[in-house]
Structures are given as structure tokens and as C-alpha cells.
Amino acid sequence: MFQRFLSLFLMAACALLVAPLAATAGEIVRDYPADRVTDNVYVIHGPAGYPSVENQGFMNNPAFVVTDSGVVVIDPGSSLQAGRMVLKQIRGITDKPVTHVLITHVHGDHWLGNHAVEEAFPDAEIHALPETIRMARAGQDAFWVNLMYNATDGFTAGTEAVVPSTEIDVASELVVGGKTFRFYAPAQAHSNTDVMIELVEDSVLFAGDNLLNERLARMDDATFRGSIEACNVAEAIGATHYVPGHGPTGGIEIAGLFRSYLETVYGEASRLYDEGLPDYEMKETIVAQLADYQGWANFEDEIGKHISLAVLEYERSMFE
């Protein structure tokens, strides 16, 4: 499975071609329920794993908040088709319009659903950090459109990258329909473009991929130390509900559980490096200490790579 995912990344990186429209392209992703977190907050929990034909490329956790004046969507999914499914779930709960979209980071599995929002609600404001906008315009848009198209054998055809146009200012708050959204941007965490979003009145934190639960993700764009600090920031907020970028929603324990994984991998890789072991000889020792995570989706695909990346980061730290 990992080799397939890697090959898709390489194909997308090399090609960077606009995915052609296909007569058999999907119109909408199959239904996933909107799970109620609070009276006003809903999360659509996507399936675990990498984007594929089986999951139609949908595998993140889109969320939405029903306010007095409209609906605020967080991370509307990985394609036009996924975004349409998200809007379908919203319409099943409220007839209020989508007025705002908030994007947690640059990885397109979280934001290519913007196309569906623009299609249905062209006046909606789409917000992201300035670095997310810059990187999307610098090539991440085409990269992710093609990755999803290739991963789904064309199901996502027709998806266009609607890049966010409104910059999030982490020094200010966004108030929509009586709901207050606060922003936290930990540096060099999951993607170096990350923002976590606190919904103050409902005590909910939308963490993006700074927090994962029952699923591991690529760390290629991340740092372990930055990701550990992001977990600390998330925990310090002290919200009642934590919505990870992937995996089940839960409480504050999610931050500690994911931090423990990161600390174990980075700490043990550093220790074993100091003892003279190369990264490929560390896996057995480190995996033995990760019993609580071995059932997480993508564990077997990612753990070896995470160890290698931890070693590289530790080596870089020696020159700081």
C-alpha cells in the first residue's frame, strides 16, 4: 500500500498536468454521516488510510459549525465530489448558507472541496494562513489535484483547486453569527502551514493534522519537535472536544496520546543514534515500545520512514 501511495506522489510531482475531465467521473462521494459533537458542531469522520479507489479519495474529517448567520466549514475535503457530499450533509441539518470556510493547512486532501463550496455558495469567504495560500499557488494546487485524480483512477475528475483568498491573522479572532473562532499557528509542525482553530463558545478545537487519532500520516513535511510542541499548544487550550485531522473525535487525551507517539519515536531514535545504531537497525526496538499504536491505520507503512526522518532531524539539531 505504501508503494502505491509513494508512486502516486511521484506521478503527481513529475506530471503536474491538469487532470482531464472523464465521462465516468464521480458526481459525489458516497454518504458519510455528520456526527454531532455539540448543539452547533458536526464532524464528518472520513475513513482511515490513504486516498484510493475504495474511499473515492475521501479520508479527512470535514467539520461545520451552524451559527446564527450561516455555516462555517472547516476543511471541506479532498475533491469537488467530496465537497458536494459535505454540503449534502449540511443541507440535511440546516438550510442556512455557507458563509465561511477555514482551511487548516496546505495538504489538498483537506481543501480541494473548496470547489464544491464555490459552486454552491460563490460569496463564501475561504480563509487560510498566508503561507498556505502562497504554497498552494506555487504548485501544491496542481500537485494535489493530480494526486487525487491518480489515486482514485479518475473519480475526482473535474476538481479545480480553489485556493483560499482571505488570509487568517492569528493575532485576531473571527466572529461569525455569535461564534468566536481563535487561531493558533504552531511553527514547523505537520506541514509548516498549520493552524488550529478553537471555537470558543462550544469548547471545540479543530486541530487539523497537528493531532491524529488511530491513524498515522506522512511526516515528510513535518518536524517531530514542532509537532510535539503543537500537541502541547493543543493541550494547553483545554477544550472539551478535540477534532483531529484524521480519526475519531475525542477529548483532551488525544493530544497526549499523539504526543507520546512522537516523543517515543524521536526520543528513541535519538538515543539509539547516539549509541551508534543506523536507522534500519532501530525499528524492532522502537516498535516494541509502540504497542498502543500498532493497530493505527498506516502504522506499518509509516513507522520505518518516521524513524528515518527522526534520525535526520536529530542530526540537523546538532548543528543548530
Task: Summarize this entry quickly.
The protein has 320 residues and is an alpha/beta fold. Helices cover 36% and strands 16% of the residues.
Layout of helices and strands, plus pairs?
Layout: H1 2-15, E1 35-36, E2 41-43, E3 63-66, E4 71-74, H2 80-91, E5 98-102, H3 114-120, E6 125-128, H4 130-151, E7 166-167, E8 174-176, E9 179-184, E10 196-199, E11 204-212, H5 224-237, E12 241-246, H6 253-274, H7 283-288, H8 299-317
Parallel strand pairs: 4-5, 5-6, 6-7, 11-12
Antiparallel strand pairs: 1-2, 2-3, 3-4, 8-9, 9-10, 10-11
Helix pairs in contact: 1-4, 2-3, 5-6, 6-8
Looking at CATH, the homologous superfamily is Ribonuclease Z/Hydroxyacylglutathione hydrolase-like
Strand order of the largest sheet: 1-2-3-4-5-6-7
Secondary-structure content class: alpha/beta
Whole-number total of structural domains: 1
Broad shape:
globular
CATH architecture: 4-Layer Sandwich
For this structure, the CATH topology is Metallo-beta-lactamase, Chain A
Number of helices: 8
Sequence stretches where pLDDT stays below 50 over 5 or more residues: 1-6, 8-24
Alpha carbon gyration radius? 19 Å
Helix content: 25-40%
Measured by DSSP, the beta-strand proportion falls in: 15-25%
Describe this structure in words.
The protein has a single domain (2-259), classed as 4-Layer Sandwich (Metallo-beta-lactamase, Chain A), CATH 3.60.15.10. The relative contact order is 0.13. Helix 2 packs across helix 3 (114-120), helix 5 (224-237) runs antiparallel to helix 6 (253-274) and helix 6 (253-274) crosses helix 8 (299-317). Strand 1 and strand 2 form a beta hairpin. It contains 8 helices and 12 strands. The strands form 2 sheets. The chain has a 7-stranded mixed beta sheet with strand order 1-2-3-4-5-6-7. Strands 8-9-10-11-12 form a 5-stranded mixed beta sheet, covered by helices on one side. With 320 residues, it is an alpha/beta fold.
